[in-house]
Amino acid sequence: MNSQSITVTTAQVLDLYASGRRDFSHFDFHEAWMPGLELPGIDLTQANLVSVNLHQAMLSRAKLSGCNLWRANLEGANLEGADLARTVLIRAELSYANLTGANLRCSDLRLATLHQGSLRGADLRSANLSYTDLRRADLTGADLRGADLTGANLRGATLAIAQLEGARLDRTWLDEAEPPHPELSAQV
After folding, report:
1. Chain segment 161-179, per-residue pLDDT in tens
2. 13-29: per-residue pLDDT in tens?
3. What does the chain look like in DSSP terms, one character per residue?
């Protein structure tokens, strides 16, 4: 995290966003309470968002690369097309979140919950998804090449046309996954 992080209130962010500002990179929003905010296209690159509450927030096309979202609540959030490359999402709550077309390349999602989330066409190359809850998640067309899915729960997940070449699938739960027997070329 940048030692020169800037702390602001939610009200200040809303005022600045309404006046046209989109760049809030390196800001410190840890433990902020911001459920339901509509901030499409906001730039939060390398911001501190530890334990932030963005439940059902509208963050489509947001720039969140390099953020620390450890234990963040993003349940039901719209992150369609968002850039979350190299983002820390350890133990983050992302159930029912829309991550369609999102860039999660090289992100750390260990122990995160993505139950019934939409990850259609998401880029998850080289992401760490160890012990992640992906039950009934839609991973149609997702790129999981080189991802670590050790111990991940993919029960009932949709994996149609997902790319899994080189993915680590040790102890991964694939019961009821669709298609029932996905063709995997994984390092086990």
Report:
1. 999 999 999 999 888 777 7
2. 899 999 999 999 999 99
3. --TT-EE--HHHHHHHHHTT--B-TTEE-TT-B-TT-B-TT-B-TT-B-TT-B-TT-B-TT-B-TT-B-TT-B-TT-B-TT-B-TT-B-TT-B-TT-B-TT-B-TT-B-TT-B-TT-B-TT-B-TT-B-TT-B-TT-B-TT-B-TT-B-TT-B-TT-B-TT-B-TT-B-TT-B-TT-BSSS-----B-
